[in-house]
Amino acid sequence: MTLQRPASITDAFLEKLVARVPSTSGGTWKLTEVYTGEVLVELPQSTPEDIEQAFRTARTAQREWAARPLKQRLEVFKRAHALFLDNAETTTDLIQVESGKNRRMAIEETCDPVMVMSHYLKRAPKLLAPVKRGGPVPMLTTSTEIRHPKGVVGIIAPWNFPFATGISDSIAALMAGNAIVLKPDNKTALSPLYGIQMLEEAGLPKGLFQVVCGEGPDVGPTLIDNANYVMFTGSTATGRVVGERAGRNLIGACLELGGKNPMIVLEDANLDEVVQGAIFGAFGNTGQICMHIERMYIPESRYDDFRDRFVAATKALNVGAAYDFGPDMGSLVSPGHKDRVQSHVEDAVAKGATVLTGGRARPDLGPAFFEPTILEGVTKDMLAGVTETFGPVVALHKYRTVDEAVALANDTDYGLNASVWGGDVANACQVGKRIESGNVNVNDILATAFASKGTPSGGVKQSGVGARHGDQGLLKYTDVQNLAVLKKQVMGAKPGQDYDKYVKGMLSGLRMMRKTGIR
Predict the structure, then answer these.
(1) CA dihedral for 364, 366, 369, 372, sign (positive or negative)
(2) Cβ proximity of 24 and 50 under 8 Å
(3) 162-175 vs 70-86: helix crossing angle, rounded to 10
């Protein structure tokens, strides 16, 4: 197909971006424009030796960076905040050309790093400041909590939000005084590379933020073995491998993994709002959002009305390839992923599910397009019933009671995100609290939870370990040191003192401190 690329996506621009990636082997990977399948640039592939060198370079730069006063480090991100906003359109072009998502999702993705910067620019000075506390003996002892950077953080970013994860997850770590070695997905390395270029324009020291590229099994082991901490976003299966290797190395890891996210519609919900939310929940970013909705539970009394409205709204979606805001939904990330999504639909239909709309690939639009698809009659013996499809496919289910809906929502190994819709917000919140999920949105799908940067966001059950955002999202990149001071030698019996008397005095002192509230 013929499609005019954005003017910003020139060969020279792309070559400059990928020149940052080390590759002594000379191997490359053909990074393509998803809409057309045409090769954009040959992406260098890093060897284990390249990765080890990247860590050495980053470690040298990190020592100087960590020695800078926090105020100086934060000045870089104040300038970066403005640069990221000034260049949002170019970033959007890169995100679209490499991932195939529609322009609305691409421009929204560019906003995530600036929101993270804004939050931690305000919060980091307090979180990273030493905290002095009393010690075991009032007046004579102190204990101070001191935060030190981990060192070099390895970040493994996914292809569905390459800029938001590759850059946003790095910001808190950099503010805390760490260096970064990032491994983006081969398919979507361009936008994070551009983000690093902008950070360096803002004053981030050269060498502090390294990028290595390659397939996961080729790059991942060496990256984890050299890192002081690992941040991974991706599938549950790969997350287990990452966590296992990090554990063998006795380093921490934060893992945001898969989901099979439910949506519960309560009897008093406003269906106009629910349908609008459901369209985004199922088909936003072509269904390639870790927190998107794949299971919808509707009360029997409102099921037919919701189904008919939702199907009509889905059929009205404009699906296509364009570098403007025309299409409501874009492409899947690759032909291979399109085949996986299609296999889930075909398996469901073969086992008795009904396609209410969609269900087909659209090669007329591009090599990785798939129609927004609504299924009915999906059961747990189907791939689409239990496994994360990660595409524009959603299953509708009826329920009789709220207890049944909550039980169905919780009947999964995953627990990343959930959505509850109801007119009585307090009641909807009570239902939400019963769902086994790290994030629950009431009268929204996912944005309210994920965009609340002051609150941790992570998964439970098989959806992950740890969280991004909130105080935890920065402190996880630090080691805590307890600096304790004893001003006078009172911790023990005095020379010649009867030990029984010392013990009685010690116990009496503990009772007094508890009674008076001192300790």
Answers:
(1) negative
(2) yes
(3) 160
CA distances from 307 to 63, 106, 269, 318 (A): 58, 29, 14, 19
CA angle at 161 for the pair 157 and 163, rounded to the nearest 5°: 75
C-alpha to C-alpha distance for 245 and 248, rounded to whole angstroms: 5
Q: Which of 33, 109, 290, 294 is catalytic?
A: 290
Residue environment code for 113-134, b if the CB has 16+ CB neighbours within 10 A, otherwise e:
bbbbbebbbebbeebbeeeeee
CB 286 within 8 A of CB 340: no
429 is catalytic: no
Is 290 known to be catalytic?
yes
Q: Which amino acid is at 507?
A: L
pLDDT of residue 211: 98
Q: Which entry of 33, 256, 294, 388 is annotated as an active-site residue?
A: 256
Instruction: Report DSSP letters for 141-177, one per residue.
Output: EEEEEEEEE-SEEEEE--SSSHHHHHHHHHHHHHHTT
- Is the domain spanning 261-454 CATH 3.30.750.24? The answer is no
pTM comes to 0.96
Note the pLDDT tens digit of each residue in 185-240.
Answer: 999 999 999 999 999 999 999 999 999 999 999 999 999 999 999 999 999 999 99
Say whether pLDDT at 518 is over 90: no
* Residue 482: exposure state from Cβ atoms within 10 A (0-12, 13-18, ≥19): exposed
Return the number of other C-beta atoms located less than 10 Å from residue 152's C-beta.
25
- Name the token pair of 1: 């197909």
What integer pLDDT is reported at residue 302 of this predicted model? Answer: 98
Q: Where are the domains of the chain?
A: 11-257+471-478, 261-454
Q: Which CATH superfamily is domain 11-257+471-478 in?
A: Aldehyde Dehydrogenase; Chain A, domain 1 (3.40.605.10)
Per CATH, 11-257+471-478 and 261-454 having the same topology is answered no
CA quadruple 113, 116, 121, 124: dihedral sign: negative
